[in-house]
């Protein structure tokens, strides 16, 4: 999981970071939190990385969180769940944020456990969370079937021999069909944040999955490389086959 926090107050960023990190740490779950103090920093990162949740302050030195919220909803094909974290308490502000696409609205000063709980709920409600929950039991898409308990994949009901990293990469692509995934996000999920590989490592694993799983238009799939960003798995149109 990767959470972004946009707030110009260093103390507030630290409090939000701590509030979110503690529950995941207690459950031994992997969580990456990126913090930003300016809109320009955040939008640059959002064009480069994949976030599972964005927490936005309203008043910022180079813009405001409501415009950032609208930008995320218009710029990204599949924007992350968004929580507005602000001192604003007026009903009109809450309505404006929710009407613009916010998933929740939390007032400052916030209660740490409440913020963490609301963050978890927002992510569970997201499309990614729903698809991942389905995949925990079974995942069948087209001619590809995942046995998640045994961590193996079947293509046209025939088992495919994959490495551990290839399986994790395939699982991530298929649970996010149609969504662009940043290279950094793919690396963190497949190899872990502490490992560092050359760009070629990911490209080679994508190539192997194309070959082993038949991720080509004539088999109903297409893996697009997104220049300067990452990869996206899509269902191919019949005209492409």
Structure description:
44% of the residues lie in helices and 23% in strands. The chain is of the alpha/beta class and 241 residues long. The strands form 4 sheets. A 5-stranded parallel beta sheet has the order 2-1-3-6-7, sandwiched between helices. A 4-stranded antiparallel beta sheet has the order 8-9-10-11. Helix 1 packs across helix 5 (112-125). The model has no long low-confidence stretch (mean pLDDT 85).
Report the total helices. Answer: 9
Given helix and strand content, the structural type is alpha/beta
Q: What helical percentage do the residues reach?
A: 40-55%
Radius of gyration of CA atoms, rounded to a whole number:
19 Å
Strand content: 15-25%
Shape: elongated
Widest sheet, order of strands: 2-1-3-6-7
Features:
241 residues, alpha/beta, five-stranded parallel sheet, four-stranded antiparallel sheet
Topology:
Layout lengths: L1 E5 L3 H17 L5 E5 L2 H8 L6 E4 L2 E2 L2 E2 H11 L6 E5 L4 H9 L4 E4 L4 H14 L1 H11 L1 E3 L2 E4 L4 E4 L2 E3 L3 H11 L6 E2 H9 L7 H15 L7 E6 L3 E6 L6
Parallel strand pairs: 1-2, 1-3, 3-6, 6-7
Antiparallel strand pairs: 4-5, 8-9, 9-10, 10-11, 12-14, 13-14
Helix pairs in contact: 1-5, 7-8, 7-9
